[in-house]
Amino acid sequence: MKLYYGKFALIFGVFLVLVTAATADPEVGLLLSSGRMNEAVSVLSTRDDAESLNQLSRAYFAMEQWDAAVKYGERAVNLGPGNTMYHLWLGREYGRKAQAASPLAAAPLARKARIEFERAVQLDPANLPAQLDLAEYYTDAPAILGGGLDKARDQAAKVQKYDPGMAHLILARVADKARQYSEAEAQYRAAIQTAKNPADMWLQLASYYREHGRLDEMQKAVLSAMAVPNRPAETYFDAGNELYRGNRDFSAAVQYLRKYLSSGELVESAPAFRAHYLIGQLNEKMGHNGTAAAEYAASLALASGFTPAKVALDRIQ
């Protein structure tokens, strides 16, 4: 799925664009949403205001350059300590850096992520992406790092008044963590029934099926997502990514990703350079190395700092 801190945040690309649009530079916002990270970094590296530093951290985050993302995310928070979104992004940046770190280094980074998520929620209880990321942290982290399923359930109760579908999604993840699999599936289906955008929830259910090895059901859930009318364009990206991760129907996955790229409705949470990279990965799996190389090159043309595309291109050249 899309590259954010955790699974709950994957479905909030458009929402995040809307809540940051009031203060963001429209030119840079377009660069980020279209996945043109080379240009974004070039523009933002000459600036030193809080919003530009936050946007720069997000560009590096998208390219999986965790050290740089944290560096600029911390600077944004220091300049704008009252901005809930800066704390949310810094929490995500700490979280992804923790996932890539050694066990010894990961624990303090995880604690920092929790503190940032909690601060984001304190600053704005209606910041739904922050509520969801905090709920995921509580679900996945051990008690010694401040996690706990009861805390996650409390987050679900708080989210309920803003978005019942998201509350069901939190409870589904909690039930899955508790190995209450029938309850988890029931909560996913409740999320589909109550969600503002059920296509996203179908894909969340697809991810759940994939993680439990139920690949036929995963594929059916993806098709159900694509059958939802008036779904956002990034559903094509998520569907293609889910099929790739589930090792199913690579041709359909490529078609979905190409439809996303041609939609004219690109979002920051599904950057174009990553769509090209995924198309490359899919073509490589199908033995189409020439097409794969072209897609990896297209990815790097937009985001030269995206190491996975560099590694993949070197591998097949």
Question: Can you give a write-up of this model?
Answer:
With 317 residues, this protein is mainly alpha-helical. Among the domains are: 1-144, Serine Threonine Protein Phosphatase 5, Tetratricopeptide repeat (Alpha Horseshoe), CATH 1.25.40; 148-196, no CATH class. It has 18 helices and no strands. The longest helix is centred in the middle third of the chain and has 21 residues, at 103-123. The model is unreliable at 1-23 (pLDDT under 50).
Q: What is the terminal separation in angstroms?
A: 27 Å
**What structural class do the secondary elements suggest?**
mainly alpha
Text of the CATH class of one domain: Mainly Alpha
Separate helix tally? 18
Summarize this structure briefly.
The chain has 317 residues and is mainly α.
How would you summarize the topology of this molecule?
Layout: H1 13-20, H2 26-33, H3 37-44, H4 50-62, H5 66-79, H6 84-100, H7 103-123, H8 128-140, H9 149-160, H10 164-177, H11 181-194, H12 198-211, H13 215-226, H14 234-246, H15 250-261, H16 272-285, H17 289-302, H18 307-316
Attribute tags:
317 residues, mainly alpha, Serine Threonine Protein Phosphatase 5, Tetratricopeptide repeat, 18 helices, disordered N terminus
